[in-house]
Amino acid sequence: SMSLNEKASSVYSYSLSLEHQFGGGWLTSVTGAGNFVRNMPLTLDYNQPYPTGGYNYNPAINTGTYEYLYGPYQGWGGISTLSSIGNAYWDALLLSVRHAAGHGLFLTGSYSYSHGLQNGYSQSGFDSTGVQNSYDINGSYGNSAVDVRHLFSLSYIWNIPFMQHST
Length: 167
Prior knowledge:
Largest sheet: 7 strands, mixed
Shape: elongated
Strand content: over 45%
Number of strands: 7
Radius of gyration: 25 Å
Distance between the termini: 62 Å
Helix content: under 10%
């Protein structure tokens, strides 16, 4: 089923970069970037049994074989319902340095530190995913599939001298 108040997801992106060129052909940059996703689709079980016994949710959920005697719609199984109530965040600090070393050689290096968080976990990023407890979606709040903390790369471009005048 689908929630009656379904909304389209909104993605807000931002970045701020500071660059400086040093003598000798060195160019550096420091960038802060990120995005915020509102109304991300989450799949909820509208017939999930009510919390019981002092737990935040009914422990019978973990067995996967419970009968829906304790849910709002008795006699019915799970009612997977798409609802646009999730949020996701991704923030990053990006550092890079570039240098034209001369003799046809150009060097680059970069490092990124980032962190992605969202309600529910998905294998493919910001898409519909389920949560363990439909009554408390923030209980499934944590690292997202796009949470790659550290990235480091080095690259070079070399203009091969003996190939410069070939066709």
